[in-house]
Amino acid sequence: MSKAHVYKRDHINTDEIIPARYLNTDNTAELATHCMEDLDTDFVKKCKAGDCIVAGDDFGCGSSREHAVWALQGAKVGAVIAKSFARIFYRNCINCGFYPIELADAAEKINNGDEIEIDYKKGVIKNKTQKKEFTFKPLPDFAIEIINDGGLLEHIKK
Amino acid sequence: MSMTITEKILAAAAGKKNVEPGDIIDAKIDCIMCHDVTTPAAISMLKEKGIDKVFDTEKIVVTPDHFQPAKDIKSAELHKRLDSWAREKKIKFYYPLGKAGVCHALLPEQGHIRPGEVIIGGDSHTCTYGAFAAFSTGIGSTDLAAAIATGTLWFRVPASMKFVLNGKLSKGVYSKDVILACIAKIGTDGALYKAMEFTGPTLKEMSMEARMTITNMAIEAGAKNGIIGFDEITKKYLDEHLKDKKQYKVYQSDADAKYEQTIEIDCSKLEPIVAMPHLPSGGKPISQCAGMKMDQSYIGSCTNGRIEDLRIAAAIMKGKKVAIRTIIVPATPEIWKQAMDEKLFDIFYAAGCVISAPTCGACLGGFMGILAAGEKCVSTTNRNFVGRMGSPKSEVYLASPATAAASAVEGKLVDPRKYM
User: Which residue of A has its CA nearest to B279?
Assistant: First the structure.
């Protein structure tokens, strides 16, 4: 079970997820301490392992920095549920074995603080607080294959 | 089957006769751009996985640029990792400090970009190279690592959007204003996952430098790539810049190629545009925003730090003084030298500007002109997200070099046309 941190915003960009002033390191633990800092200074304090971020359209737009995904992973974010994702960020998520979940009207269906449960294989989000279920389109097969192999590099090693 | 230029290049790279939007392909990579922020992580991943191979030491171009010269100990460590790897792997085209420049200005200038090729880079503005009728796109560190090892990468073939640029730009209006107008029209995700293909007579009067400003910002509309067809202007630039390998293949979109959308822009009607914070899509004509007080002007970056940009800025500042902090950042050592030889530095110095070494610097909030809380900067760069150039409480206003220079002189947003 995880808690939803809802940001009713479109275009949450990589500069907000991990500001460029911290890109002088690629250490995940260090990046994690600044995760979402320019959007919500309390995020790291609030986020418990497995919690989810919920947002509007175009999540992760901007830079190609994979540091954005590492920061989220380091902060123990379980998944990002957004109406849509920016291209490079989406690809980086898959390559790092981190699930980007596309859900129409995500930030309207889920309220801040709702307890949710995600079944990645079936493509179902259970909103325990609201006692509702939402289905999402699971990732394409080749992407699941990459994630199951443990990321792109393990995948190509095979 | 009719195809767009993007589809043709990707089909050829995948060894296929045809591809369609949505197809997943494995494409052969012709050139990989590596810089100091995303490449060190890729190198570590390869080491960690025990993958020692570099697919081709002559198809990788390495330059530190984001934090170079090293801005602090941590970035020095990144540079050290990049440097030892490039030397150990005997990467042929490695540009260390002194030769290093802002990657997307450096690679075309040093002759690494050819039409028809598939170019990737660990930087979102890699889409710049599409100005040369090539397919180019930005990727993250894991993809970079995979491509360095294998020379191939999977892609989903993007649908194409066509932007027809009609009409003659009026004096004082530039390619930066055109692309800001396009992004304002469709939004920062208006071309999400798509190819933005630019055509039309306005391009015929633009240099390659000016065209690169357009394709550079395709990512700001969410695009996978931006692309402009080959013509005499492309050829002339390549004749002057290609060094080692001078052959290339020219692809053109078929007349009946399919576009998801066609957008016509009458460029003759455009006035200088400034993108308001905090999205690149916040473009407003200067007539609607002139007078806003600024604290800093920044002229540089992969978008507008080329010699043509510096000439435009210098022509406006000649014989004048700037009213606010003004930072000039020539994007590469060659641009720096040329600006010095053309005595543009004398003009900038006399006007009260500071001239930096080539670097991405403050464009991404690294160093060399960071903003304090509450400060406003008119900038020739490409992004004005929250905190992009410093404090999360600062503001960035994106504009052309002419607008940034004129605004520097008056200390507020100003229509540059009054200085022409």
Answer: A11
Give the best residue of B37, B46, B80, B367 to mutate against chain A (max A CB count within 10 A): B37
What confidence category does residue B193 fall into, taking pLDDT thresholds of 50, 70 and 90?
A: very high
The pLDDT assigned to B328 comes to 98
The CATH superfamily of B271-419 is Aconitase, domain 3 (3.30.499.10)
Q: Cα separations (Å) of A28 from A24, A35, A52, A78, B231?
A: 12, 10, 18, 15, 46
Contact between residue B303 and residue B406 where contact means Cβ atoms under 8 Å apart: no
pLDDT at A158: 78
ipTM above 0.90, yes or no: yes
What average pLDDT does chain B have? 97
Query: b/e map of B370-399 (b: 16 or more CB within 10 Å)?
Result: bbeeebbbbbbbbbbbbbbbbbbebbbbbb
Q: Which amino acid is at B18?
A: N
Q: Is the pLDDT of residue A116 over 90?
A: yes
Nearest Cα residue in chain A from B46: A153
In this model, does residue B233 exceed pLDDT 80? Answer: yes
Question: What domain count does chain A have?
Answer: 1
pLDDT-based confidence at residue A144 (cuts at 50, 70, 90): confident
* Distance in Å, alpha carbon of B128 to nearest chain A alpha carbon: 14
Judge whether residue B257 has pLDDT over 90: yes
Q: What is the CATH number of domain B5-265?
A: 3.30.499.10
Q: Which chain A residues are Cβ-neighbours of B154 within 8 angstroms? A: 142
User: Distance (Å, rounded) from C-alpha A145 to C-alpha A95?
Assistant: 11
Write out pLDDT tens, residues A30-55: 999 999 999 999 999 999 999 999 99
Question: Look-up: residue for tokens 């957004």?
Answer: A82
Taking an 8 Å cut-off on Cβ atoms, the answer to whether B366 and A21 are in contact is yes
Q: Is the pLDDT of residue A1 over 80?
A: no
Give the gap in angstroms from C-alpha B41 to the nearest C-alpha of chain A.
6
A83 — contact with chain B (CB < 8 Å)?
no
pTM for this model (two decimals): 0.97
CA–CA distances in Å: residue B87 to residues B62, B84, B337 = 10, 5, 26
Q: Please indicate if any CB of chain B lies within 8 Å of the CB of A38.
A: yes
How far is the alpha carbon of B288 from chain A, nearest alpha carbon, in Å? 25
The CATH number that applies at residue A128 is 3.20.19.10
Nearest chain B CA: its distance from A10 CA (Å): 10
Domain extents for chain B? 5-265, 271-419
Pairwise CB contact (< 8 Å): A91 & B41: no
